[in-house]
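Example (one chain per record):
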Amino acid sequence: MSGELIDIGSNLTHSSFAPDLMEVLARAEGARVTRQVVTGANLASSRAAAELAGRHPGTLWSTAGVHPHHASELDPAHGPALRKLLGLPRVVAVGECGLDYFRDLSPRPAQRAAFVAQLEIAAECGKPVFLHQRDAHEDFIAILAEHRSVLAGGVAHCFTGGPRELEAYLVLDLSIGVTGWVCDERRGAALRESVPRIPLERLMIETDSPYLLPRDLEPRPSSRRNEPAYLAHIARAVAALRGEAFEDLAEATTRNAVRFFRLS
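Predicted structure:
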């Protein structure tokens, strides 16, 4: 399909999608978002994401992992459960995992321990990592650098940083996921500066729905809920910042997502 898009980060198991999920999927398809990777944030949501992906073969895949907000929940008993999920063919990455010092919803030592544990699981299972980092750049880079050589790959999910952060990620051979944050000329200034510097072969796009509704979206939904159908809006903003045609950007980011997540 010409102009096909892949949303590499949608939180379709979020409660806000429960009443109308089929309509959300239909709107995504109508907007040429033909495939999505559903994000797991803890063991329960990772199971739910895997089950949802299993009900929509050819359209949905998922990740399995523990977000840093939930790091204190991770105990040794979680390891076998995560490994079992990651053995499923439609579960294509480990995460969302990483560090979040902005909210500190889990203690920082617990976040670091959970991050390391998931990087080790990723190395064992041979699947890439779906990464989260906020206000923890130095620790994040230091931990990731120790493990990068044994990882199948990594994508900086919802990247919002400036050129210095971007360069550190590129040195570690990470792919970069860009969300509707790029559509906010206030908060997104650093990201907007970075977007033209992302090598095209490392670039992917995502909504992180229902979060991060693009600020400049018109008409603005009254619910303020983001959804995968708005990925084309994000793609157009990214293409404009890079001076590229929308169709070229769509083709490249789709190709990158298929290769990175080994979608079939």
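Caption: Strands lie at 5-10, 33-38, 60-64, 91-100, 129-134, 154-156, 175-178, 203-205.
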